[in-house]
Amino acid sequence: MDAPKMPKVVAPLTDVQVKSAKPKEKAYKLADGGGLYLEIVPTGSKLWRMKFRQANGKENRLSFGKYPEVSIAQARIQRDAARKLKADDVDPGEARGEQARVAVEKAANTFEKLAREWHSNKLSTWRESTVRDTLRRLEIDIFPEIGQMPIGSIKHQHMIAALRKIEARGAHEIAHRLKATCARVFSYANQQGIENINPAADMTDVLKPVRPGHFAAITADELPAFLEAMDKNDAICQSCSRTNL
Fold it and tell me: Is there a smaller number of Cβ atoms within 10 Å at the N or the C end of the chain?
């Protein structure tokens, strides 16, 4: 009875082998083990790839990038991660597709996009002047700084830098109000399931205080109620004046 065949052991590639591999008339492969191999194409490019079998038995392959941008060590890390997924009955190709979809989605959810969504949701409850002024301040002071950044990638230092530019021209009250507005935008994104750390929410001591004599900072959401209260106070004062007469 013939002994069962042992799986072929593939010696790992060395950096010298990879560097010295020359292109040929046709593409060829240098195996590294575990399904990972380097494909050398006639143009001279060296591409890291990995072959694996799907649950249905069909062979598939993953691309890990080009050498030397992707080193042997980096390619092996990606191979091991793919093998771990396979061991957990997860198709590495499908997992990579989902990761790519999530990455594209995150990149599309910029601060400006979500700020405009939040602003649109407030149109029916705000005065026309509040609608106009809130968006104008964002367009002037915030969107040029962090507007095109994915909202989940915005850190405290990005927010601080944007607000301190406003402070630098002496507009301390505007800086405080925009901080509050931005905090609402980050909160809106979180409520939509778009994760972020809301860097504007806990910045209590970063900005310089508004100088005495100025109005206290009012958030964009609080402004309509503030103006309504002022109107009521004016009406009361006028009524009192007529009564005293």
Answer: N
